[in-house]
What does this fold into?
Amino acid sequence: MELNTKGRYAVMAMADIAKFGGDAAVPLSAVAERQNISLAYLEQIFLRLRRAGLVVSARGRSGGYKLGRAPEDINVAEIMRAAEERTRMTRCMDEGVGCIGEERCLTHHLWAALGAHIGVFLSDVSLRDVIDGIPLSKLPVSSVERTGEPAV
It folds into this structure.
């Protein structure tokens, strides 16, 4: 799966602001310290999040960032899209180039379907769900039925 730090850190930072910000702006330095993320890297990510309208910046002594909308109105997929993160499971490119040279690998459709499921799941999980705990109703039924616990 091609999921690098950019998308994960964007979600972590947005969850941090949702949890600790309330109506006040949160300094990125505080987010960086709590989440153990480089401040310079967060600044790059937040430029993208601000352009997407997911956060708004506040200047001044109590400056920082606030959520652009309520946490229940922001889903994880849109945070990752804003951070320019893809959840592609195959090596194939969108323009028809194959996994192996010009050919698609034997398991291409399996990984493409898994990527689509992940995309649907991330679209269904709000920032509120992340900070409050993802409800069992949003988890795959089979993972909860087998163990009584969500599969992670």
The chain has a mean pLDDT of 84.
